[in-house]
Amino acid sequence: MSPAWLAFLKRPTIENVQISPDGTRLAVAERADDRTFVTIRETKTLTLLTRFNPGDGGEIHTLRWLDDTRFLVSANAVMARYNLAINKPVMAIVQSDGKGRYMVPANFLATIDGDPDHLLVTQCTNWGEGGCFDAVHKVEIGHTNRIGDAIITAPDRDSVLFPDRRGNVRFATSVDDKADTKLHAHIGEDKGWTLVNDSKESGVDVWAIGVDRDGASGFLQAERSSGPDVIERYDFATGKRTEVYRHATSDPIRYILAFDKLTPIGAYYGATRPQAVIWNAAHPDAQAIASIIAAFPGRIVSITSTSADAGKAIVSTVGDRDPGTWYLYDRATQKASLLARAKSWLTETSLPKNREVVLTARDGITLHGILTLPPQAPETGLPMVVVPHGGPHGVYDSAMYDSEAALLASQGYAVLRVNFRGSGGYGRQFQQSGWMQWGRAMQDDITDATKWAIAEGIAAPDRICISGWSYGGYAALMGAVREPSLYRCVVGGAGPYDLAKLYKWGNIRRSDYGLEYLAKVVGKDQKVLAERSPVGNAAAVKVPVLIVHGKLDARVDIAHARRMTKALRQAGVEVESHEYTNAGHGLMLDADKVDFYTRLLAFLAKHTQARTGAGARTADAQ
């Protein structure tokens, strides 16, 4: 009999739902066997009308209706040996009755309001040192092998282009090898590109997030030298930038778009307790979308698509106990009816709740995190797993559903995740405060969060382990180095355990961008790198360790795991290690995931058993 926790590893069976312009049909990305199909279903009854098979290992990416008879889809296939797609997705326009399809000859950029017979695509026309200048072309659907003259060319190499709903490209953003960014705006006609921000000059990044419905202005997310990012309105005619909204502590973590799926009208703030803010309240869709959001408290809500008259909309939700749900919303009745659940076998009542954690680090910095507690269990004296996130810079943990946290909580563990300094979501200054702090202040934040859970009575002080992947694996091992009596066991997956070797092993070092990144975040001082590397401090580890790594890891070479394992054994530390033959920087194969979590749960159970007598510790001992 299979263990119940396998349910958390199972892939969602529903991945996307889109409604046709006339509102009568749905295009659904549905998982079955080894592939994701596109099915066309009646909106009212969900009756299957047509099914499109992408082939063995097929994966669906873009899915959207062009008109009532055609939809746009991009697909590729995974290699079964690695469960990973190697080739870029291929874009096609498909007849919904299954009688025809046309391949899009270049990279899809946008559809055009009121013109279902044309698309905007991009194509590299000027390859230069360091990247490509993309040109934008307007192509006719049905004759998509013909690409006419470019209507506009990007101002910088490898730019991300932002069109408006009328098919005009209005913004371009780019990043160079030094991680410096530029934002350009295009006023239109023959006035060309205007430089809005150059981070080398301003010291901050500014990103375009969309164009308002009238095309006269756009919205930007702009960093500040201190505090979180702000929302600005950019006037195309004058170039004036006006601050629209600034949250007290958080960057925008998810934009809220109008029914056209292009125009920003607000955002969610606070990764560990997301709250919606509508800052483009004058938009005609603002009130209706605010009402929809209010109907799903505690969840992040988005509109995936609408009928042409905007009378019907597909609403998607995610929450701490909601891995993904789709509803059909009727604007006339203001009612939402359930269409599908991403993981229908997981019931809300059986899933753990996430609780926001706010604590003060030893140097006075405010930290935010998430505590996941076992369902139907006491909330005190629990065995706990501390899980530092990977990345680490710019990445953050959120309060939304997390399959690993849910799996661990289902086995009786409290799970603590903290957005230590260096994490994203809290502004440029907070993220940069983690530079040069690997194994130091970043590690102290994880320690302080762990001790907070002990002081609150949530975690049993002698039943705590730490486990992570990538940077999280590094932090797990450094946790045992820095705090040899705090954790009962340590799990490291794909971690860089010898920081100096990041300049010699793995693919970060293979680009100027990567070398610049390493110099900024860990530095080049060999003595400091050695002091902050677990491999050179193995003798400080006093608890059992589990090391796992993929043999094909291009990001963090498996030599890190092998050296760490050898160093621990030479130091007399109890260590288990396992290498996954067909895995890279993470586990993609189902069999590998099952194997890892089987090992992990057995390892945690062995080392978090309750202790009594002289071996027991108390919070005071910490």
Q: Give the assembly state of these chains.
A: single chain
Mean pLDDT: 93
The amount of beta strand, in percent, is 35-45%
Structural class: alpha+beta
Low-confidence stretches: 612-622
Rg of Cα set:
25 Å
| Helix fraction bin | 10-25%
Spatial sequence of strands, sheet with the most strands: 29-30-32-31-33-34-35-36
β-strand number? 36
Outline the biggest β-sheet.
8 strands, mixed
| Morphology call | globular
Count every helix, treating DSSP H or I runs of 4 or more residues as helices.
Answer: 11
Query: Termini separation (Å)?
Result: 42 Å
Task: Give the helix/strand layout.
Elements: H1 6-9, E1 14-19, E2 25-32, E3 35-42, E4 48-52, E5 58-65, E6 70-79, E7 84-85, E8 90-95, E9 101-103, E10 107-111, E11 118-128, E12 131-140, E13 152-153, E14 160-163, E15 169-175, E16 181-186, E17 193-198, H2 199-202, E18 206-211, E19 217-222, E20 230-235, E21 241-246, E22 252-257, E23 264-269, E24 275-278, H3 286-294, E25 300-306, E26 312-319, E27 322-330, E28 335-341, E29 354-360, E30 366-372, E31 382-386, H4 403-410, E32 414-419, H5 428-432, H6 441-455, E33 459-469, H7 471-482, E34 489-493, H8 512-521, H9 526-531, E35 545-550, H10 559-570, E36 575-580, H11 590-607
Parallel strand pairs: 31-32, 31-33, 33-34, 34-35, 35-36
Antiparallel strand pairs: 1-2, 2-3, 3-4, 5-6, 6-7, 6-8, 8-9, 10-11, 11-12, 12-13, 14-15, 15-16, 16-17, 18-19, 19-20, 20-21, 22-23, 23-24, 25-26, 26-27, 27-28, 29-30, 30-32
